[in-house]
Write a structure and sequence with these properties.
74% of the residues lie in helices and 0% in strands. The protein is mainly alpha-helical. It starts with 10 loop residues before the first helix and ends with a helix.
């Protein structure tokens, strides 16, 4: 440090950092879900429970693959917007610790899991995590989302305290 005290981070930049971290986490959570659960493990696709798009027919698999691709496009845009929000705040002088960023990303991923688990799995029932034991896997998906949010909140608080100490110097 050059001996100059850093200015306090303006509230708008704090909001950009928080929003950016949440969007980046939601985007990465969506990537993980789509890549691992949809493609690698092939446990489900976006529309695999609708009845209109069976994954054991070519037409059904084509429709599910299109829906998966649109889903990935949305998660990519979320991650990209999050990245630009954080980048913009840092260029304006915002202070951001790794703990704060990772914490916000974990919260974003957890929120993604909770929203997808409640909306897609429970309310709309367009798909479930794994069809071998729907109740168990859907519950584990929601529990994992809740743990991500709680862990992310703890990490974020720790990072924010470090940022406050750093900006006070």
């Amino acid at each position: 440090m050059t001996g100059r005290a850093r200015a306090a981070v303006p509230p708008a930049d704090r909001t950009s950092v928080r929003s950016g971290g949440l969007l980046l986490g939601a985007g990465f959570g969506g990537f993980f879900d789509g890549i691992v659960l949809h493609q690698v493990l092939q446990w489900h696709h976006m529309l695999s429970s609708t009845g209109d798009n069976p994954t054991n027919t070519v037409v059904g698999l084509e429709e599910n693959t299109l829906a998966d691709g649109l889903f990935h496009s949305v998660t990519f845009v979320a991650a990209l917007v999050g990245l630009f929000l954080i980048w913009g705040a840092l260029r304006k002088g915002a202070i951001l610790t790794g703990k704060h960023l990772v914490g916000m990303m974990l919260i974003g991923w957890g929120i993604f899991n909770l929203v997808e688990g409640i909306v897609d799995h429970q309310i709309l029932t367009v798909h479930h995590v794994n069809y071998d034991n729907v109740v168990l896997w859907d519950a584990l998906f929601l529990a994992f989302g809740a743990l991500l949010v709680l862990g992310g909140m703890a990490l974020t608080r720790s990072g924010e305290r470090a940022e406050e100490r750093s900006s006070a110097r």
